[in-house]
Amino acid sequence: MLLGAIADDLTGATDLALTLSREGMRTVQVVGVPPEGFTAGDAEAVVVALKSRTIAPQEAVSLSLAALERLRAAGARQIVFKYCSTFDSTEKGNIGPVTDALADTLGTQITIVCPSFPANGRTVYHGHLFVGDDLLSESPMKDHPLTPMRDSSLLRLMQAQSHRRVGLIRREIVAAGPQEVHAALEDARLAGNGIVVIDAICDEDLRTIGAAVADLPLVTGGSGIALGLPANFRRQGLLAPPATAKAFGALAGRAVVLSGSCSKMTREQIRTAVHAGMPALKIDPLQLAGGDLTPQAAVEWAIATKDAIPLLYSSADPAEVQKAQNALGRERAGALVEAFLAEVATALRAQGFSRFLVAGGETSGAVVEALRVPALFIGPEIDPGVPWTLGIGMDQPIALALKSGNFGGADFFLKAWDLLK
Ligand code: ADP
Question: Is residue 148 in some structural domain?
Answer without folding.
Answer: yes
